[in-house]
């Protein structure tokens, strides 16, 4: 049987040839008729007409097919992609497309260039042709994050080089984290001797700086591999003290290539980018380098740190809508972040979520630092971490329970610790993680019992000292403490004054913003009235005092509302009383001949001696 092949409108192929001649009688095997086929360099649609004839219509001047069906799994949601192979003008390309983008076909010009033509009215036929001509499609499941995942009945640790389980490397798992995390590649020691050498190399980092610096950083390395934590570390110090180099030693436990010049992230990135990296860097340490504000009140950079560190501390991220208008799964940080910078990010709330490790000039011991850098380049630090996660894989769930129980015990022992209420919890996390690492090192024979006890005690003392050093940062950033400090400045500089109960000059008037008259026998106020002092009590007009403080603070104004400031004054114990009957923080008093609602402080909080 023969059919007449009809082609309407012959066209010139932009690649130099012609569209295949279709107006000819050719034999057709009815049993093998398909809707689409390749014809030369084209894809063609084939239709059987009612009169028995077959019409072949070119749909595109290129050939393309789907070669792989890819599921990208980030641990919270899965996204489908298609691996596509395309040929145009003798050139072959292979690339991946999100499934939704594939269906819209807008990718053709972007991926193949201006010579790629979909003929008029044929867009959906091109999509259908690619699907029908693909044949067997290879299925792939790709993990797009680091850290722990269950694989069958076992736990495995994902890194950019694959996966590690209780027996070492696990075959058959593909891991493709974001490009910035491609160097997160752990190693596994080949024998017990190499394992011991790797663990000893890791411990030698403790010699590179005083214990108050080295122990928190090395403890954070091993705590990171144990799972999610809700605090971050921040390595602070002036330029030239080797902050970045020391942070890189910690980072190289997760990959030899991540030295000081190859760290995965920095604060020049956008808040969205850092948030997504911290999400993908699950159960791993993520160094974010070089917090360097351009000047006082660098709002853009401060907003980046705000998003990142608050997200870690609260295990939350900014909600987003997908292209379909649906709310996407939050990408909250799942790694332990270590930041570095010459300045400490401002804000009491943010600092409460940080453990700030100070590096002074001369603190780093260069010889030990150089030895650590050599160990990092050789992959010894990554081998120590590789051995640690292989050890953890055998008892992962039991180790999680043990970690949580130990943290609860240690946190309860730190209730009297100076600083913010979050500090004891963070210290407990570091210490518990360090103890688990020491268990591993002792069990593998890398350290003995006496050395283990010494390392545990030195870590305890180092963390106590670190906790004590947090108080000054958290207090300095507290809006209530800043408020009283700025009040003193306003009174000293003549921008505000405090009167006595009758509205006249109080005792010690000079300290309350008054100055002598020209005759020297009287007093006159300076600035605006913000309150009244009665014996040892100071009553502040809330709005006036708040406005004056914000004015004198300038670009470093208090980042809290007037109502929030009142609550913080009460929480810090700076309010002497409140109206318990009405359950409000403002008290009622008759001052300067009028009934007023005021904040009640002790005068000694603002003046060195009470008036």
Could you explain how this protein is built, in words?
With 611 residues, this protein is of the alpha/beta class. The chain has 3 domains: 1-141, no CATH class; 193-320 and 328-476, Rossmann fold (3-Layer(aba) Sandwich), CATH 3.40.50; 479-605, no CATH class. 35% of the residues lie in helices and 23% in strands. The protein is built from 17 helices and 26 strands. Strands 2-1-5-4-3 form a 5-stranded mixed beta sheet, with helices on one face. Strand 7 (78-88) and strand 8 (91-98) form a beta hairpin. Helix 4 packs across helix 11 and helix 13 runs antiparallel to helix 14. The longest helix is centred in the C-terminal third of the chain and has 28 residues, at 449-476.
């Amino acid at each position: 049987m023969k059919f007449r092949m009809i082609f309407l409108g012959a066209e010139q192929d932009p690649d130099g040839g012609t569209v295949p001649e279709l107006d000819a009688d050719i034999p057709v095997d009815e049993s093998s008729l398909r809707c689409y086929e390749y014809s030369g360099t084209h894809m063609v649609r084939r239709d059987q007409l009612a009169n028995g004839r077959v019409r072949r219509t070119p749909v595109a001047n290129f050939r393309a097919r789907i070669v792989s069906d890819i599921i990208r799994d980030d641990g919270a949601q899965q996204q489908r992609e298609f691996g596509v192979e395309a040929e145009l003008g003798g050139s072959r390309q292979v690339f991946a497309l999100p499934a939704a983008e594939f269906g819209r076909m807008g990718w053709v010009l972007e991926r193949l260039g201006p010579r790629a033509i979909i003929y008029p009215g044929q867009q959906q036929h091109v999509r259908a042709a690619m699907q029908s001509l693909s044949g067997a499609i290879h299925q792939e499941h790709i993990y797009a994050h680091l850290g722990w995942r269950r694989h069958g009945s076992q736990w495995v640790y994902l890194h950019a080089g694959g996966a590690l389980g209780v027996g070492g490397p696990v075959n058959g798992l593909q891991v493709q984290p974001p490009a910035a995390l491609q160097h997160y590649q752990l190693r596994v020691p080949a024998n017990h001797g190499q394992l011991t050498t790797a663990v000893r190399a890791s411990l030698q980092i403790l010699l590179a700086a005083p214990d108050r610096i080295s122990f928190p950083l090395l403890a954070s390395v091993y705590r990171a591999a144990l799972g999610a934590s809700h605090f971050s570390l921040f390595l602070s110090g002036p330029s030239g003290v080797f902050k970045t180099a020391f942070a890189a030693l910690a980072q190289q436990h997760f990959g030899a290539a991540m030295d000081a010049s190859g760290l995965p992230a920095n604060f020049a990135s956008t808040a969205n980018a850092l948030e997504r990296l911290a999400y993908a860097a699950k159960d791993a340490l993520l160094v974010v380098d070089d917090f360097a504000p351009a000047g006082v009140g660098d709002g853009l950079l401060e907003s980046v740190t705000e998003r990142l560190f608050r997200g870690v501390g609260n295990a939350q991220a900014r909600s987003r809508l997908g292209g379909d208008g649906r709310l996407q799964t939050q990408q909250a940080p799942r790694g332990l972040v270590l930041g570095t910078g010459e300045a400490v990010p401002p804000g009491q709330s943010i600092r409460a979520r940080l453990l700030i490790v100070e590096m002074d000039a001369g603190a780093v011991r260069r010889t030990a630092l150089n030895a650590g850098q050599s160990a990092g380049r050789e992959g010894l630090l990554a081998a120590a971490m590789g051995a640690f996660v292989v050890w953890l894989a055998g008892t992962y769930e039991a180790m999680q329970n043990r970690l949580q129980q130990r943290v609860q015990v240690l946190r309860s022992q730190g209730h009297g610790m100076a600083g913010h209420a979050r500090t004891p919890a963070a210290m407990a996390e570091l210490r518990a993680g360090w103890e688990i690492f020491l268990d591993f090192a002792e069990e593998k024979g890398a350290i003995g019992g006496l050395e283990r006890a010494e390392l545990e005690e030195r870590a305890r003392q180092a963390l106590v000292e670190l906790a004590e050093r947090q108080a000054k940062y958290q207090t300095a950033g507290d809006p209530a403490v800043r408020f009283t400090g700025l009040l003193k400045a306003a009174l000293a500089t003549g921008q505000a004054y405090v009167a006595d109960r009758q509205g006249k000059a109080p005792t010690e008037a000079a300290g309350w913003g008054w100055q002598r008259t020209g005759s020297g026998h009287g007093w006159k106020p300076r600035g605006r009235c913000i309150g009244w002092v009665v014996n040892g009590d100071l009553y502040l007009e809330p709005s006036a005092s708040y406005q004056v403080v914000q004015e004198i603070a300038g670009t470093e104004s208090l980042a809290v509302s007037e109502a929030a400031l009142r609550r913080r004054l009460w929480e810090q114990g700076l309010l002497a009383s409140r109206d318990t009957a009405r359950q409000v923080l403002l008290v009622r008093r008759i001052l300067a001949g009028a009934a007023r609602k005021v904040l009640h402080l002790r005068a000694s909080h603002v003046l060195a001696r009470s008036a």
